[in-house]
Amino acid sequence: MLEAIEKLLILQDRDRKIRRLQAELANIEPERQTLKIKFTTAQTQLDHGKQRIKQIESERKQLELEVEGKQQQIAKYANQQLQTRKNEEYRALAHEIETCKADINRIEDREIGLMEQAELAQKEVARFTREAGEAKKLADSNIAQLGEREKNLQQELLQLESNRSQLAAAVNETVRARYERLVKSKGENVLVGVQHGVCGGCHMKLPAQTLVACQAAQELVSCTNCGRILYYTRDMELAGTD
Known about the structure:
The protein is mainly alpha-helical. It folds into two domains: 18-165, Helix Hairpins; 172-231, no CATH class. Helix content is 77%, strand content 5%. It contains five helices and four strands. A four-stranded mixed beta sheet has the order 2-1-4-3. Strand 3 (221-222) and strand 4 form a beta hairpin. The radius of gyration is 41 Å and the shape is rod-shaped. The two termini are 27 Å apart.
């Protein structure tokens, strides 16, 4: 195999590992944020549930005050009945008393409804409390693991990048520039093998002249279709399988 190809394959392998680690590192923060959002969502549900209970309790107390006010009105009207001697006024006061009693019945029905709502809200809060606790435990554990993983990936990346420049410098400047250009347009698969007469990158059939030149390993040979740099080893089947 051509020496330049060997050096480029080493460089390409290093670049692939670096890109893989960079991609893994780039995913760390989104994963961390997803965990935080899950916990925040669970906590928000819990806070809303607690607020709902407070609201129900406030409404219930307001109804109690209304009942108390109606009862005071009934006592007032009953006292006025004792003082009046006119049948018409007595009947009017009796009507007011009955109206207040009916209002109290309606208010008490609303209180019963609020009590039922409060019971359901308490059950929801209990569930939200469990879910928030589980979400926090999971978030804390996984975020800690992500932090450790991030640290290890950064160390591994630093080691890979530390001598990448040395590997690149070992490649002829013109050849290296050609490789870098292809990396920008083709991604990580710049040097590709020849198998059964086709390019390992674009998988198009190669001309016989290109196959011969690739096997001769005297110069860099590019795919006539995609421009990737081709290489051939003895374990590859050079001829097509038509």
